[in-house]
Amino acid sequence: MRYKSEETMQSIIDFIDDYYFKNNYTPTLIEIAQKVGIDKSNVSRYLKEMSQKGLIDLSHGYRKIKTDKISKSDTSLVRVPVVGTVACGNPIFAEENVESYLTISASFLGSGEHFALKAKGDSMINAGIEDGDYVIARKQNTAQEGQIVVALVGDSATLKRYFIDKQKKMIRLHPENDSMQDLYFEKADIQGVVKKVIKDVR
After folding, report:
1. Helices (H), 73-143
2. CA–CA dist 120, 118 (Å, integer)
């Protein structure tokens, strides 16, 4: 094998790192070739030699190259859908309700499937959830009393603390705001249990 420039190898690594941490995936061979200034076939040869030298990991293919920097980072990322307007009777995380996505470390979220909502109003301020905060919920249709849930009541999604009123035989949704009254419903479809809140520093 012909001698490969160590400077070019480092340029390739630097570009892969920069591209990955901006886009959450690695560049194509063509993108590497254009950036470094060599043709695509030479990029492939460079990557194979770099893999043999232990500079990168190619075991998962060219589109999942791992440099040391990438390997040391938490590469387990998930795309959490941010849901918006709720169609009547539909789960709030149905595809047609997805407005955008948040890319978040899986270790930050923990197990399960998640979705996010943007909080509106001040009904949960005592729980630290303010208007405009992103609330991340684990998708599930049951909850324990006292948990903060995303519940679908009719065609509206609401964020409240969940209780069961055994005397009234109704679901009690408690707002974390001293000026607001509890809400009672015969039926409320739990869509998820709140796990995290993402907010701007004020």
Report:
1. 106-109
2. 6
The 10 Å Cβ neighbour count of residue 144 is 9
Nearest to 169 by CA among 186, 150, 152: 186
Burial of 169 (0-12, 13-18, 19+ CB in 10 A): exposed
**Tens of pLDDT, residues 149-164:** 999 887 778 899 999 9
* Tokens matching residue 184: 């009672």
What's the predicted TM-score (pTM) here?
A: 0.61
Domains assigned to the chain: 6-72 (1.10.10.10), 77-198 (2.10.109.10)
Q: 3-class DSSP state for residue 97?
A: helix
Active site residues: 123, 160
Nearest to 32, CA basis, from 58, 54, 1: 58
Q: Are the C-beta atoms of residues 150 and 117 closer than 8 Å to each other?
A: yes
Sheet strands (E) in 21-155? 56-57, 66-67, 77-83, 98-105, 114-118, 134-139, 148-153
Distance CA 25, CA 43 (A): 18
CA atoms of 127 and 149, how far apart (whole Å): 12
Predicted confidence (pLDDT) per residue in 52-105, tens digit: 989 999 988 888 899 988 887 755 678 888 987 544 445 566 666 788 888 888
* 28 backbone dihedrals φ, ψ, rounded to 5°: -75, 165
